[in-house]
Amino acid sequence: MAVLRRILTRLLVGFGVLWGAASLTFLAVYLIPGDTALLILGGPDARPTAETLAQVRADYLLDQPFIVQYGSYLGNLLQGDLGQSYRLRLPVTEAIGQQIGATAALSAAAVALALPLTFAVAILSAQRASWIRSIVSGIEVVFAATPTFIIGFALLIVFSFTLHWFPIGGNQGPVALVLPALTLALAIFGTLSQVLRNELEDVLEQPFILTARSRGMRDLPVRIRHALRHAAIPVMTMSGFVVAALLGGSVIVETLFSRQGIGALTLASVYNKDLPVIIGIVLLSAAVYVVVNLVIDLLYTLIDPKVVTA
Amino acid sequence: MSSTLSPVAPPPLVELRNLTVEFGRGINRREVVRGVSLTVRQGECLALVGESGSGKSVTARTLVGLTGSGATVHADTQRFNGVNALNWTERQWSRVRGRDAGFILQDALSSLDSLRTVGNEVGEVLRLHGDLDRARRHARVVELLASVGVPEPEVRARQYPHQLSGGLRQRALIASAIAADPGLLIADEPTTALDATIAAQVLRLLGGLKGTRTGVLVVSHDLAVVADLADRVAVMRDGEIVEEGSVQAILQDPRHPYTQGLLAAIPSRSSRGYRLTDRSRPVAPGGPSLPRLTPAPSPSEGIRSPAPVSLPAAQGTPILAVQGIKRSYPGPGGGTRTAVDDVSFTLGTGTTLGIVGESGSGKTTVARIVLGVEQADNGSVRLHGRTWEEHRAARDASARRSVQMIYQDPLHSFDPRRTVRQVIGQAVAAAGTPRRARADRVLELLDLVGLASDKARSRPLDLSGGQRQRVAIARALAAEPEVIICDEPVSALDVTVQARILDLLTELQERFGLSYLFISHDLGVIQHVSKDVLVLRDGVVLEHGPVDDVFDNPRHDYTRRLINAIPALPALRKDTIPS
């Protein structure tokens, strides 16, 4: 019952977040200088006639007051209509739908690499001799601090240009996914692993760990069965960081490895001021945040029996 | 082990000769245990008694190879069931732990994994050391919980530690320690976090576990707690055992001055009227006058009402009158929970009223209402005959200041980034002391509470528990109070430190005619400090009267149980008090 109420509250809040994101992007687009009608018709180079411009303004309600435009925008959104891409002459949903699979695969692969790496490194290095921790922590700082495109370049130079193990780019098959996913994963691992190790080290000082050891449990099982669940709770709170790293990182990685995907679409849309697509991507990102946070929130209730209140 | 086959007496459960434990390296090296030797045999209970930092817990943990990271352990002999355990690997130790030695830590809330059910925690030992399948393990867990006196063990096994009361948690922890039926039980402060009646039950439970084949090592800071349980006592100080002997010998004829001081420092009825640190010095009756520590600041601005009635009052004149206060809170499930129900008492000038009650008895709510930070639903609190509303209406800020409070753990009431000077200075400024006089006033207050002036630069975290409590007292004194509410002020302190703080409070009462509302769960402390006592349970006053009357003729069954729960120090009281 409490869990159900919690889900409902969160869904409501999530809906509010989406509405806020939609409104803010709309406001931003509304305030951007430049003639939207001109953009729709292909930019200043298209040299449209005054009649066509007026026609487009009327079609797109651009001659109406702000509140009317906003209302029609929200109304369309509710029906799942994000409008037409100026550049691709496609509905925005379709433009995004074509690209989302590639990015989802990339993100999933990155997470699938980053999480086991993070957990393994943090569990094995927590509370070890200080030289071990210094080395591991140093490596993590390098990955956390280096910009994604430099990590990607380094991987390309080593594994593609020199060793020829992996293709330098493209979307062909799982082999082409390895380096881009690894690039994203390393950036996530660098930060996440440090947080997890710090948490683990705090947890390993707790009396219940001593109790577990006093029962005859060996070191690794103590870390995995007792300490990890406690340490994982704060790390889950960082899922927002992970989502940001994946969304932001995909723009860079997809460009660097000349892959198709949402990131590449974002970049192209920004270059071409393809506003409906940009709005669509912003809304998509917001939706991903909302869903991920909802899932994490439910995971809390599974992991921590004390979390029951909404 | 193989040596159990020998026809002669079985070897001791543990044997330790000349144990030395160091932490850290180089200049950070600290010797925590120095040359400790001890033996625990089957069927006997050894108590390791000492104050915090004496190395008693480290010694106990070393017995099962859990000294901790960064420790260097040396010993001439370390035997476990007659087998040489020097240089055992982690793998060898893990086979012995839980199976041959059970370990019970204090504060079961943090000693049980909060994310796992109680049943899982207790069953873990069986999973590690037995070959029972899941269903039979569960059945055994329920059996174990029942055997340590946990009611509804089926239900409890499925609950999480935070859903159990402190006493039940401690029982569950004991169940987990005895699950594999180990020969040796090590209990580190097993009752410290518990209420007196619950602690007595847990001690009885532990005493029952000491069987013909089972030996117990109990570690405690409290001699009185272990007196009933232990056969032999080893007193530790600064990493060394200073004295060891039978309970009778240690309690009745302590040889070492440290042990003597430790025993004398235990507050009780017979120590009332004397200083705990020096029982040859009686306490003078509370001063009849209220000398101001500094001249009161002149009211230079605004219109102030006449000064509060702080004329010299005779000792015993009521300064504080609490009449029929009642307070309820919304309870779970829409009902209300009455925390305080019709509590009345008066506090005489220069006297101490003890308030006794276990957790949840409403004693802290009473304190908050008296302090005026919480409103009573019914009833009144009058200071010098005026309620807090009337004081407020009269714009009399000095009344506000004349009631101060000190807490069990002052650390939580200090800003950790501030120095002692700033902590006290803030209170001095709030008391209206002129800016240029403040620095001197801080030093004066430090001197009053027996702290050296160089402590003004320290931060709370760098101070010991006793020093922190002194700072808290100095902060309370800054307001020149007439009443100080002491909420478990010595509960977190070692017995000798507790003695010094109690003596300090007594001395301040003598000098300034302070009145104390003294809240404690420790009946010994209450009997030592109080003139009158109030026994609270579930928000209701069960007993109220002169402390000896209440303790000699308890009217209520609950009070009798409380009194019986006081750990007895056999024949100690008369013997150790200098005539």
UniProtKB/TrEMBL annotation, chain A:
<keyword id="KW-1133">Transmembrane helix</keyword>
<comment type="similarity">
    <text>Belongs to the binding-protein-dependent transport system permease family.</text>
</comment>
<dbReference type="InterPro" id="IPR045621">
    <property type="entry name" value="BPD_transp_1_N"/>
</dbReference>
<dbReference type="InterPro" id="IPR035906">
    <property type="entry name" value="MetI-like_sf"/>
</dbReference>
<feature type="transmembrane region" description="Helical">
    <location>
        <begin position="277"/>
        <end position="296"/>
    </location>
</feature>
<feature type="transmembrane region" description="Helical">
    <location>
        <begin position="233"/>
        <end position="257"/>
    </location>
</feature>
<dbReference type="GO" id="GO:0005886">
    <property type="term" value="C:plasma membrane"/>
</dbReference>
<keyword id="KW-0813">Transport</keyword>
<feature type="transmembrane region" description="Helical">
    <location>
        <begin position="12"/>
        <end position="32"/>
    </location>
</feature>
<keyword id="KW-0472">Membrane</keyword>
<dbReference type="Pfam" id="PF19300">
    <property type="entry name" value="BPD_transp_1_N"/>
</dbReference>
<feature type="transmembrane region" description="Helical">
    <location>
        <begin position="138"/>
        <end position="163"/>
    </location>
</feature>
<feature type="transmembrane region" description="Helical">
    <location>
        <begin position="175"/>
        <end position="196"/>
    </location>
</feature>
<dbReference type="InterPro" id="IPR000515">
    <property type="entry name" value="MetI-like"/>
</dbReference>
<dbReference type="Pfam" id="PF00528">
    <property type="entry name" value="BPD_transp_1"/>
</dbReference>
<keyword id="KW-0812">Transmembrane</keyword>
<feature type="domain" description="ABC transmembrane type-1">
    <location>
        <begin position="100"/>
        <end position="300"/>
    </location>
</feature>
<dbReference type="GO" id="GO:0071916">
    <property type="term" value="F:dipeptide transmembrane transporter activity"/>
</dbReference>
<protein>
    <submittedName>
        <fullName>ABC transporter permease</fullName>
    </submittedName>
</protein>
<feature type="transmembrane region" description="Helical">
    <location>
        <begin position="100"/>
        <end position="126"/>
    </location>
</feature>
<keyword id="KW-1003">Cell membrane</keyword>
